[in-house]
Amino acid sequence: MKARVALVLVVLVTAASLSPMFAQATHKDTKDGNDVKGKLDIRAVNTSGQDTNPKWKVITFSRSTAKALQDRGFLLIYFDTFDDSRFDYYALISSNGSVLKGKLWRDRTNRPDRKVGKVPVWRADKSSVSVRVQLSKLNTGGKERLTYRWFIKTLFTGTGCHRVCIDRAPNETAVTDSNGKESPSPLDSDDPGLTQSPEPSLTPDPSPSPVETP
């Protein structure tokens, strides 16, 4: 088990490299194919909520319990708020064996990542995970931002995924959400909700502590 946890932590460090701010948000959903083994193959991501407190509901093809995901399954939401070539924050959702817990991190370029706070996580059923992020906790780099970008990534190790199965939604792109005051910047021509973007360099705390129990 310790070897498996160590493997997942290594993947968390390297997987991303493989690949008044907000008013009323214009949320966009995304779908993904049945293309990855394991319990966290993404079927769809539904977004909802108001301006500063959007919600992401990640729906998977398989069902899973909190116990099955402990030290094996992780879900991340990446955010670009600085409007540059990298993503600046990520929410990391993991299981303590009983429930799922979420933390928000600042992905810093040349220093260890900094914990910003907790994020609410809940489940309507065993094939979905819902996360709400308070966007006021995300810095904009001193710019008056009218849009922000996000994408979802899952990691799972276990039956059928001995080397960690990774899924991403949307694939190779990011979703741009607008606050509705002004049209977002030019987007991908095939889908007005997607923009091409390089993936962030995820560098979590070198010695992450266990997820707190409720």
Structural description of this entry:
10% of the residues lie in helices and 39% in strands. The protein has one domain: Immunoglobulin-like (Sandwich), CATH 2.60.40. It has helices at residues 2-18, 66-69; strands at 30-31, 42-50, 53-60, 73-80, 89-95, 100-106, 114-119, 121-122, 128-132, 147-158, 161-169, 173-178, 194-196. The chain contains two helices and 13 strands; from the N terminus they run αβββαββββββββββ. Strand 2 (42-50) and strand 3 form a beta hairpin. With 214 residues, the protein is mostly beta strands. The protein starts with a helix and ends in an 18-residue tail after the last strand. Strands 4, 5, 6, 7, 10, 11, 12 and 13 form an eight-stranded antiparallel β-sheet that branches. Strands 1-2-3-9-8 form a five-stranded antiparallel β-sheet, with no helix packed on it.
Provide the descriptors you would attach to this structure in a database record.
Immunoglobulin-like; disordered C terminus; single chain; mainly beta; five-stranded antiparallel beta sheet; eight-stranded antiparallel beta sheet; globular; 2 helices; 39% strand; 214 residues; 13 strands
